[in-house]
Design brief:
binds ribose-5-phosphate, 8 helices, alpha/beta, 25% strand, 6-stranded parallel β-sheet
Length: 296
């Protein structure tokens, strides 16, 4: 197991779950901002698993690519990536002339030095399957049963509220697992930080606790708007549950200040809101990937 900075706890969990040996790396910055990467454990003929937290990815990608390609150069049998949050999936088409279709280009870049990728609930909208853009094996586990279990235990009278129609694909199974009804917001994105959100007809659920359910909280604009509308309509204090808490630009504090609480996330991106663990799901996917190749 080789951990990129910030994923030491995940690597330790996975190492225990998989019975894999921890590897030593040195990753730091030269004074000019370039990355220094060293693999201090033998990797020749070993199967290498790299863990990476890829929120705010741009600074993390170069060390990851250097680490993976160096492991290969040093003779590793296979080099796989466990990235619980897989970034660059939202720009999945060219909305304006000349734009990069980042989801596709990023998949190509990552696939260069890697043999496989394991992740959690990738944000798939206009690209139906990760395998459509990743030329290497990719496995996506879903946190939906864990999210459903958390809601069942902590909010027994929940009404689940999905951010938009595209999220129905996983709001529906969470609702089924939590034994709760669900409705979908009507959302229009107006810009990077601005959305227009409308509540659907939901007065028949007035006695229930609204649980805003999203796969990603980025700027928090979607859930902050929804929180304000719910409070304006006299619903009880809503809470929010998300798989990936990116929390750009202080979004966590702004969401709490808007009156949404608690705000709970899975531990795909380390954050104080992490309440739902998924490392064992990742370990099972890595084992699945290694059915024919022993984990080193
Ligand atoms: C929509 O595409 C996603 O499911 C999330 O609703 C979105 O990423 C949230 O973004 P923000 O927190 O910036 O409103």
């Amino acid at each position: 197991m080789l951990a990129l900075p910030g994923t030491e706890a995940l690597a330790a969990h996975l190492g225990r779950d998989l019975g894999a040996e921890p590897g030593e790396t040195e990753i730091r910055r030269f004074p000019d901002g370039e990355s220094y990467v060293r693999i201090a454990s033998p990797v020749a003929d070993r199967s290498v698993v790299v863990t990476a937290a890829l929120d705010r990815p741009d600074d993390k990608i170069v060390p990851l690519l250097l680490l993976a390609s160096t492991a290969r150069e040093l003779g590793a049998g296979a080099v796989g990536l466990v990235a619980p949050y897989l970034p660059y999936l939202r720009q999945d088409r060219r909305f304006h002339d000349g734009e990069a279709i980042s989801a596709r280009r990023f998949a190509e870049i990552l696939s260069g030095p890697l043999d496989w990728v394991v992740t959690v609930d990738p944000h798939l909208h206009r690209i139906p399957d990760l395998r459509d853009i990743y030329p290497i094996p990719v496995r996506a586990v879903t946190a939906a049963p864990r999210v459903a279990a958390w809601i069942r235990e902590h909010v027994p009278d929940a009404l689940l509220i999905g951010p938009d129609e595209e999220s129905r694909q996983w709001v529906e199974p969470v609702a089924a697992g939590a034994g709760a009804p669900f409705v979908m917001l009507v959302k229009r994105r107006l810009g990077d930080r601005e959305v227009a959100v409308e509540l659907p007809a939901m007065d028949r659920y007035r006695e229930r606790t609204p649980v805003l359910l999203d796969d990603i909280i980025s700027t928090g604009a979607t859930l902050i708007q929804a929180t304000r509308l719910l409070r304006g309509r006299g619903f009880v204090t809503p809470c929010a549950v998300a798989v990936h808490g990116v929390f750009a630009e202080g979004a966590y504090a702004r969401l709490l200040a808007a009156g949404c609480r608690p705000v709970v996330t899975c531990d795909t991106i380390p954050h104080p809101s992490n309440r739902i663990e998924v490392h064992d799901l990742l370990a099972a996917a890595v084992l699945d990937q290694h059915r024919t190749v022993p984990v080193g």
